[in-house]
Amino acid sequence: MRAFVAALAAVAVQAEMIPESTLKNLILEHKQFVNANYTPISVTVDGKKTQKYIASDWCTSDGAEFVCNMDNRGFIIDDANFDKSNPNFFTPNLLGGSVEWDVDMSEHECGCFNTFYTVSMPAKTADGSLWNTDGYFYCDANAGNWGGAFCPEFDLQEGNKYSWATTPHSCNAPNSKGHYDWCDGSGQCAQNIVDQLAWDGYGAGAQYTINTEQPFHAKVTFDQ
């Protein structure tokens, strides 16, 4: 079985509406810092430890740990140098395999969610050229709704101390150049702890089976 194992700590973003003018300024500011911090991270693939790197402006890694401040994100890449002409994102084949990681939710309260997800980067325009939306060619199932690029997304983890959801997002078939014109931003077949666990299955405190005041292990399996 193919497997990808990593540790994850405090990867947080906060959901909020941002005015378009402010968003453009944030994107321009973001581009000025691209390539500022590529730190190594240890992941285990099919039982073998391997070194990848975190491409990010503000997030860092140490050993198998990945730490990211509020409202930031990082991407796993194969090499220390990010090739903008042919982005070298880490793209394991997960069909028939699984992803496992450890996560610390202890500082993630209501209104803040900690995310770990896969997307089909790099973003592409309708003619197939790379779409450098943010310095890293970012895309997801909702980005096209606010001027970015659409692409398939699988949310392995969206949660905090009190909630957790896993949601796949499909898209229309891409054109011959690999460009997506629409994706299902809401997602389908979502799995949520509210539906899957008893009232004491997940929460902050020793009375819960998964005590989110302590680090815990997560695993998502991709059955064939």
UniProtKB/TrEMBL annotation:
Listed InterPro entries: ConA-like_dom_sf, Glyco_hydro_7_sf
Signal peptide: 1-15
Keywords, in A-Z order: Signal
GO MF: hydrolase activity, hydrolyzing O-glycosyl compounds
Name of the protein this chain belongs to: Uncharacterized protein
Keyword Protease: no
Swiss-Prot/TrEMBL GO biological process terms: carbohydrate metabolic process
